[in-house]
Amino acid sequence: NQKIAGPKDFDLDLIRAPSDPGTYEHANATIVALVRNSEAIGIGRTIRKFERSFNGKFKYPYTFINDEPFSDKFKKKMQSYSDAPMEFITIPRELWDRPESIDAKKQDELMQIMEDHDVGYAKMLSYHNMCRFYLGNFYLLPELQKYRYYWRIEPNVDFYTDIKYDVFKYMEAKKRIYGFTINLYDIDRSVETLWPETLKFLNKGDNYKYVNKNGAFQWLLDDLQNPRNAKTANGYSTCHFWSNFEIGDMNFFRSEAYMEWFKHLDSTGKFYYERWGDAPVHSIGLALFADKKDIHWFRDIGYSHDPYLNCPHSDDTSGCKTGLLGQWEHLLDQNCMANWIDYSMEDTIGIY
Ligand code: GDP
Ligand code: MN
To answer: What is the ipTM of this complex?
Structure first.
């Protein structure tokens, strides 16, 4: 069926939606949502749309994660949105909390300065915890060890495409490590020393051995096409995969290369003394340690998280307006997808 949205270089017979999800042989994967009890309505909205778009057909299990125990009310509500299996996890405190080694007073002072420069969430401790958690300890949660692939969802996001193929099986068959929908520039001040700290790590011992010779280096560092003429963050373009949507292979994030680098970043304390977002950190790790051809733009999946969107022009997509990143003119200069296409898709663009 030519009208199926999705990658054309793939055997669609293998990935057609199953007639009986009960006996279907799933990929080793879970849908992941880190949420608070208070976000039940927002994540419920997401799940209803996600079920309609993808998971109603495939019934991959959900894993809900929280730094506090989920209430019975929350669990019941989630179960009313989908009959897919669900697991509810409380993060052990030591995997979530700010480490003792962080100087709280120093953090407060530095974050006041950031806030004065309009860096969002700078003064919110839980946001720093969340970013650090998603980058490291998330992959080490005992309940996630049985899985290889995850698809991250968030409250109040939207899905516009009827996805007719098993996205996880696509990842597996094509040996993809990471899938994204949106590419954005970040606030350079929030990640000011992220790249210099990364260079320090690479220059230690024989750490250069971790760098993939086919990494997305130009995308990571080059700023030639930056339309807003913004500063790079000490060499990093700030272009990143927007991480509220991500489909990832945890074997990569559990690898020595990624984890050793993450440990170095964590040892600097700058998840608290700066406001490193999980998206730019993930993006640098991927650009350095993965082969760029294993990073996949799911341009066929209509998706939005306020205020940006990816809206494909396809028969299977409805409810969004096709266009670059959305209809808000003043936001368009945040888009760096052109860099990804130019610098990282030249080898693969022929197959789309
Ligand atoms: P933004 O997209 O950068 O504005 O950040 P969000 O507020 O959407 O947070 C990202 C994700 O982490 C969302 O899924 C939130 O529900 C979740 N999250 C953020 N902070 C916390 C927290 O303190 N506890 C829990 N359980 N989830 C959180
Ligand atoms: Mn969000």
So the answer is: 0.99
